[in-house]
């Protein structure tokens, strides 16, 4: 992790995501000020942070002692005290427009003029709660995977009024913190993470409702099937490598079936030739077809490594 430039971070909200963000930034070497309006959460957060850092150290995922990292986190007595000298203010409040609107007004009044205001919102867009804020140009979404100290992807979602310079600074800041930021180019409810997750969940619920499979069996298909593959490569690369000739060949062979499946659920989004061409061009830029065999072999080795790890875990459980 890049510690060449120390940043000061304020986190407002000490629930599970706020605590997890505190772990991320403390591990990156940055001073953290954490505030929650609930005194019981302020009291509990230090112990929870220490416990998570201790577990990371136990698995060799810290470059220092858990105590050294935990010492960077301080509990603030108010929003104003938390944000007073912050470079980044990370909001982790409940998913309610009224709460976020009030908090961002406090941030705008109390934080330095150069501070970035990021919301950990899971679905609400920045435009829905900072549209009339004087400092709205420095507001955006930074939505993490949960927990972010183990799942590094974080979605950066600027509003139409977010200053481009703020977006770029935010992307770099999270890279420096050891995360993998993804720029979401348009404001859409749920962003990318929860739209993909939601598509799977909607179909999973339907399959249970329709008596096609049990809850347990659907979890098995995801955990030991799709999820296993997707832990190595994403859905586009998966089908690209599953079909000789790549993703264009897959779309030609399977596109009509997927279109019928979508229509069955009332969704008509066929893969048009133009859309397939766009996706195929991106895949071929990433992987020329002459390297396809080599990449398939790499995928198989990666899955073998996962299988070996699974055997090791299973044997430890039995011993």
How large, in whole angstroms, is the Cα Rg?
A: 22 Å
Strand content: 5-15%
Biggest sheet features: 8 strands, mixed
Oligomer: single chain
**Largest sheet, order of strands side by side?**
3-2-1-4-5-6-7-8
Counting DSSP E segments of at least 2 residues, the number of strands comes to 8
Average of pLDDT:
95
Indicate the percent of residues in helices: 40-55%
Uncertain parts: none
Q: Under the CATH scheme, which architecture of the largest domain would be assigned?
A: 3-Layer(aba) Sandwich
Task: Quickly count the domains.
Answer: 2
CATH superfamily of the largest domain: NAD(P)-binding Rossmann-like Domain
Number of helices: 12
| Termini gap | 36 Å
CATH C-level category of the largest domain: Alpha Beta
Reconstruct the topology from this structure:
Layout: E1 9-12, H1 16-27, E2 32-35, H2 39-58, H3 66-70, E3 73-75, H4 79-83, E4 88-91, H5 97-110, E5 116-119, E6 139-144, E7 153-158, H6 164-176, E8 180-183, H7 193-209, H8 215-230, H9 235-242, H10 247-264, H11 273-286, H12 292-318
Parallel strand pairs: 1-2, 1-4, 2-3, 4-5, 5-6, 7-8
Antiparallel strand pairs: 6-7
Helix pairs in contact: 1-2, 9-10
Structural descriptors:
319 residues; Rossmann fold; alpha/beta; single chain
What would you note in describing this structure?
Belongs to the 3-hydroxyacyl-CoA dehydrogenase family. It comes from Caballeronia udeis. GO terms for molecular function: L-gulonate 3-dehydrogenase activity. Keywords: Oxidoreductase. The chain has two domains: about 10-185, NAD(P)-binding Rossmann-like Domain (Rossmann fold); about 230-319, no CATH class. About 55% of the residues lie in helices and about 10% in strands. It has helices at about 15-25, 40-60, 65-70, 80-85, 95-110, 165-175, 195-210, 215-230, 235-240, 245-265, 275-285, 290-319, and strands at about 10, 30-35, 75, 90, 115-120, 140-145, 155-160, 180-185. The chain has an eight-stranded mixed β-sheet with strand order 3-2-1-4-5-6-7-8, sandwiched between helices. The mean pLDDT is about 95.
